[in-house]
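Appendix B, record 7
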Amino acid sequence: MTIPAGLSAFPITPTASNGDLDEIGLKRLVARLVEVRVDSIGLLGSTGTYIYLTRQERRRALEVAVGEAGGRTPILVGIGALRTDDAVKLAQDAKAIGAVAGLLAPVSYIPLTDDEVFGHFVTVAHESSLPIVIYDNPGTTHFRFTPELVGRLAKVPGIVGIKNPGGGSEETARHLAEQRTLVPGSFSIGYSGDWYAAEAMIAGADVWHSVLGGLFPRPCQQIVKAARQGNADEARRVDASLAPVWNLFKQFSSLRVVYALADMMDICRGEPPRPILPLPGAARHQVAEMLKDLPSEITG
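Structure tokens (predicted):
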């Protein structure tokens, strides 16, 4: 399996007030993940605001992260772009710099057909030779991969996995079982949606693609470890301890909350790229109070 099973932690991409990459901040985020030994790092995902960054900014962020990881932790990197030729170039950059795989979403302005998305993925995989993970993120792209399209893509050389959106426990279990019948045994099936992830891992998913894991990797690792050992009660216990975080994620969006948390924890300072605005004062106060009440074994 090209994508290591377990926890794939997705950090923010911190920038300075003028929009330049905060390299020191990014190094601190990556160093925390390497130290805790997450199974992989998901750089420049939606949490990493990849779609707002130029090709050069993405290259530099990946160079910094690969350098800090030092070969100790594999890096999966977002390569999505509106145009296929741009996605190819980003994938080629990622391969040259040292990413193990590219995370590709069908980014669009004009709604895409299944055949257009299929052609997009085939071209990027073929012309870059970078292993590709399908990024199914319909809340953002407004495109949902059908089982038939996933089955077609899973047969394409170089397309090695999928990052699915999360859902309820019964829905996820059914979805996972169906998807297993459509793809090769080596194909990585992962899920996002942090507050659903414990149930996805209990159901037998390969990877948790985690926003919170990019900042608080320890409890996320505990959930993954317990689920993979068949200890569903322990996975659910740790997940329940994170309910205050999940509630704020749902209320304010995980992106805005983790930006605020990274600032409050003195890991890095920055704001999401405009037009996204940071949390206003009252919301930041809620996040600060939640952080104060979290035990150190979660935040450490």
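Remarks on this record: DSSP finds 14 helices and eight strands in the chain. The first strand starts at residue 6 and ends at 9.
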